[in-house]
From TrEMBL:
This is ARM repeat superfamily protein. Keywords: Signal. GO terms for cellular component: cytosol. GO terms for biological process: proteasome assembly. Pfam families: Proteasom_PSMB (PF10508). SUPFAM superfamilies: ARM repeat. Residues 1-20 form the signal peptide.
Length: 344
């Protein structure tokens, strides 16, 4: 009965900001806190978290929920070693949703967010003894937080240095689910989900730390260079390749990454190949990556490098062609066959 009441509150909360305000003023959000604090019944706690997860999806949710002590209780759940991994995973994703907008960081104290990141960091540091789904949820959470410039800067600050897990797992092929989740999270942190003018971070230290993480990951791998590492991602199966396009689209706005990409003609060959992808999602991701590289080059002094003229021509042609058309779209029409009577 209590879970049904919470579900009704969530539906009313999502109806409008007026009903959300009325619910906040009626102190009904404290019911969620009570259910999360009492973790004796795992099924009941999980049901409450599922309802809260739906509630956190609404655009105005963080404005109200972050003014309560909910995030602190969610952090306590993530930190609780006795809690089931599925409960911690759901709590982690709720925190990511709550912190996925720029307004969130104006509402809550930085110390609360730092405590949350330290709790997630603990999960990722002890990954060998943890459930794989929990690792993937933690990585997805970091991706949600990193969609805003404020969140990305916080992930790339030292401490807590938590973005290192995302970069390391992005280029580590051990565990397909973790590999994919990390790549998508890295794309978000690099700015692929942000406005074009906000893709690069305002904080030079955060940008430098991101660069250092990528070069460090490359030097610790058999590929040795970021360009070879990125190429290896694009040479994998379609799902990984789509995630790789996202990462490349976000990273290439940075001059150091653009140089790395231009140093590998094979990367340009993949992103400009209209036959590379067979699904709509793959075609669009490949094309978006192609456009991102082309835009980055057009605003860079590399545009006038004679050695890159052929590469730039391929990019321009691929952008003009669009995401769906193949290189030579030939339509074979039925042809009548004319022959003499003797032939038959």
């Amino acid at each position: 009965a209590r879970i049904r009441i919470l579900s009704l509150i969530a539906k009313l909360f999502g109806a409008s900001s007026c009903t959300a305000t009325a619910i906040r003023d009626s102190n009904l959000l404290s019911l969620f806190e009570d259910e999360i604090k009492d973790r004796k019944d795992m099924l009941k706690t999980l049901s409450a978290l599922e309802v809260l997860y739906e509630l956190a999806e609404h655009p105005h949710s963080n404005m109200f929920l972050l003014k309560t002590s909910l995030l602190q209780h969610i952090t306590d759940v993530i930190n609780d070693p006795s809690a089931d991994s599925i409960v911690r995973s759901r709590a982690s994703l709720i925190s990511g949703r709550l912190l996925s907008s720029a307004d969130a960081f104006m509402t809550i104290e930085k110390s609360c967010v730092t405590n949350l990141l330290l709790a997630i960091d603990k999960i990722l540091r002890t990954e060998e003894s943890q459930n794989t789904d929990e690792i993937e949820s933690a990585l997805e959470t970091l991706g949600l937080i990193g969609t805003t410039t404020q969140g990305a800067c916080l992930l790339l600050s030292d401490p807590p240095n938590i973005a290192r897990h995302v970069v390391e797992m992005s280029f580590d092929r051990q565990g397909r689910g973790k590999h994919l989740a990390a790549l998508h999270a890295l794309g978000s942190i690099c700015g692929v989900d942000r406005q074009e003018d906000q893709m690069k971070l305002d904080d030079p230290q955060a940008e430098e730390f991101l660069k250092r993480l990528v070069y460090s990951a490359a030097s610790n791998s058999p590929k040795l260079t970021p360009s070879a590492l990125l190429l290896s991602i694009l040479q994998q199966d379609p799902d990984v390749r789509i995630a790789g396009y996202r990462v490349l689209s976000g990273l290439v706005v940075r001059e150091w990454c653009l140089r790395e990409v231009c140093s590998k003609p094979e990367i340009i060959g993949i992103v400009t190949d209209p036959k590379m992808e067979t699904t709509k999602l793959g075609m669009e991701a490949r094309y978006a990556c192609c456009v991102a590289i082309n835009k980055a080059l057009s605003s860079s002094h590399l545009l006038h490098e004679p050695s890159l003229s052929e590469l730039i021509g391929k990019l321009n042609e691929a952008v003009r062609r669009g995401p769906y058309l193949s290189e030579k779209r030939q339509r074979v029409e039925a042809q009548p066959v004319v022959g003499t009577m003797e032939r038959f």
